[in-house]
Amino acid sequence: MYMFGQVIGHYRVLDKIGSGAMGDVFRACDERLGRDVALKLIRPSSNDNLDHLRRFELEARAAASLNHPNIVAIYDVGIAGGAPYIVCELLEGKTLRKHLSEGALTISLAVDYSLQIVQGLIAAHDRGITHRDLKPENLFVTTDGRLKILDFGVAKLQPVPGEAERSVEDLTTVTRGGAIIGTVGYMAPEQLRGKTVDHRSDLFSLGAILYEMLTGQRAFRGESEVDAISAVLLEDPPAADLERDNVPISFRQIVRHCLEKDPENRFQSARDLAFALDTLSEASSNRQKRIEMPRRRAGIFPWAVAGVLLTATLLLTATLLLMRKHARGNVQSPTYRRLTFEDGTVSSARFTPDFRAIVYSAAWNGGPSQLFSMATDSLATELLPVKNAQLLAISRSSELAVVLSGDYGVDRMTTGMLARTQLAGGPTREILENVKSADWDAKGELAVVRRVQGRYRIEYPIGRVLYWSAGRIGHIRFSPRGDRIAFIDNPDLQEYRRSVSLVDLSGRLTLLAADWKDPDSGLAWSPDGKEVWLMAAEPGTSRHLVAIDMSGRTRKILELPEDMTLEDVAPDGRVLVSLDHEHGGAATTARDGKTVELTCHGAYFVTDISRDGQTILLEGWDRGTPFVAICTIDSALPVRLGEGDRGRFSPDSKWAIAIPWDSTGKPSLLPVGSGQPHAIDVTGLETIYWSPPNFLADGKRFTIEAKEPGHDGRTYLVSLEGGKPIPVTPEGLPAGLISPDGRFVLRDMGAPGAFSNVFAVYPFGGGVPRPIPNLDPGFSPIRWSEDNSSVYGYFFGHVPAEVYKVNLATGSKIPLQKLDPRKAGVVDIQEVVTRDGSRFAYNYKQVSSVLYIISGLH
């Protein structure tokens, strides 16, 4: 604890003035300059928390780069006794939240504060900085009426003690990998959906704040977390609040325009919003302009005309909203009850046979997956004795079917050893390998989804095949009468194409719905057995809970957030669901075992690592267009190199190659340091995306996947010195990994898009492939060794992931390194890259789950 009079750096602590999610704030005296400052320090208990340290660094870097009267000024950054600190200007006044606790503001004051916020955002957005967590708590009003934006550079907000007792609107929701960062009640829909966040997300947050300043009420409210999320995604703030407080129509339009669900329909810049606020303010004619006016361009309407068009757009939006609500018809107002409060991932959950309790499998707080039982009326939870297990089903006699030592799969289902055990305790008996899904019939017999020779099939009873799929099968469930099995099929492995089907006990297949978008989030029978319920989206719609009857007719039951999974349905209509927030991160790990979290991951994917292991090549996305960027392992901000996809370093790491998103464009050679980009001439070829480009060891040649018009794709060898690209594989075959000497390629022996999990070495230009012997399924090669004898790789889907050096002639494996971020909810290690097996960089995916029971559905 820091005491009065203690000196940190050259700042003497005077008294404590506040606390935040990750640190404490003190009034201190700068003994060099003789002025009082605000000194912000991480709590001593959090000094070893890398997330807190990274958040601290990001806030300092971002905010210190800004110099604007509406953004808190950063004076100094340092570390004392192992604890980082930030020194900033000392503010006298109170937060906007405290102002709003006293009620709505006057219109003139609300507009004045909004304009000051916008001006601070203009300064930040001009430097490419998005706040991502605007809320009244992060806005400070000084005693002289100046508004200051706090907490720029948010990367992670940790929960604080007592957060469980706070209202849901105050809860902070955080993800990695460019997914969700912010506070639920003020987050833009794209943040909640885990999509790309940009400056327009800040404008949505400001719209919610302006609404609250004008009305004294929160724009998006809810008694539960799901309610609040659903309100942001699906509802508009109550217009009655604005009307009741006599807010002029012009300001209502501005608020609504800020709060458009689609960022393309909002104000497109902070300057546009500032112009609208300043033009429509009742006092604008008497107040000096405080913004830089946007340049007039040909074709820009005068503001009056634009206002008419805005009004028409809002009226059309309102009409469509009313139509949508009317179309919902008799959708009821359900109630939600939260069941779990730990940090981690739920893989499956089911009601017990008496429907008074649930059993679920979850990996909480960084531990292994375990089984838990919970009484739904009291939330009393018991840990079951089965270790490293994930639940598949519960029989009517309370016997559990589980997968042992499985991994969190693409569709939340695992593949591993099927075992049986009793809910009341007793021995666990292993039954069958390579099982992904299972369900019990009324007599205690199991139906399973099993992987055999790279394909999935339904067996019932075990050993008797009812159905084969060319792709994946998941979520099998017996009908209440036991005469049919419902399941989700992904027959051709297209990422977003799923079918819902039935198979009877004779193997006759019935297709209920085809080409649905991503309904891998659970399936169950309705209480009367006449419908199949699932989370899905028909083409062109967002996901919701739907029912499909036996003739294939569908009806919408309830609109829900994108990341919700249907676990089970009780006879009284209660629905057991989990809400999953997917987020990601990136890290590097050296052979000495030291893991370094990459602070620059954001919405980026790791694509390569430099020879010295200090620089990471990244792929990012900006409004649907990919680009290539780099960051160092100790840098918070990536540096963008240029547009393109699938980047790779040259052997000397001085250049990065990028493939254009437009198939008719030219690959680009982008300088990592000084230099100019070079377009590579591949006239007559269209680039495709089977495999990333690969440099040969000489650094003068690389391979790309491309095709000539009217032909199938193949691999071409391209010289940086010019000349026509040379085809080196037969048409229709992707390249995979090219050996450093350019003589061989390592790839899966299956056809494009159909993976066999068997890898072989192919001679360039044709010849007999040589399979790698004794290699277990699931191996993912990363890179050839420099002597062409081995390949580095890992086994996909395992957490932690172990990287091996595999001899291509014998298949023998030498373990090199375990990749383990040691964070709660990590379910996948992916995009692993290395240069020589001494350092690895990778992305990882985390899933944070909460179980709910929804009641009141029909």
Number of separate structural domains = 4
CATH topology grouping of the largest domain: Neuraminidase
Average pLDDT confidence is: 80
Radius of gyration: 29 Å
Shape: globular
Report the portion of residues in β strands. 35-45%
The poorly predicted ranges are 153-182, 282-332
In CATH terms, the superfamily of the largest domain is TolB, C-terminal domain
Number of DSSP helices?
10
What does this structure look like?
With 858 residues, the chain is mainly β. The protein folds into four domains: 1-90, Phosphorylase Kinase, domain 1 (2-Layer Sandwich); 91-294 and 301-328, Transferase(Phosphotransferase) domain 1 (Transferase(Phosphotransferase), domain 1, Orthogonal Bundle), CATH 1.10.510; 339-573, 6 Propeller (Neuraminidase), CATH 2.120.10.30; 583-848, 6 Propeller (Neuraminidase). It contains ten helices and 57 strands. The chain has a seven-stranded antiparallel β-sheet, with no helix packed on it. Strands 1-2-3-4-6-5 form a six-stranded antiparallel β-sheet, with helices on one face. Strands 12, 32, 33, 34, 56 and 57 form a six-stranded antiparallel β-sheet that branches. Helix 3 packs antiparallel against helix 9 (270-280). The longest helix has 26 residues, at 303-328. The chain is globular.
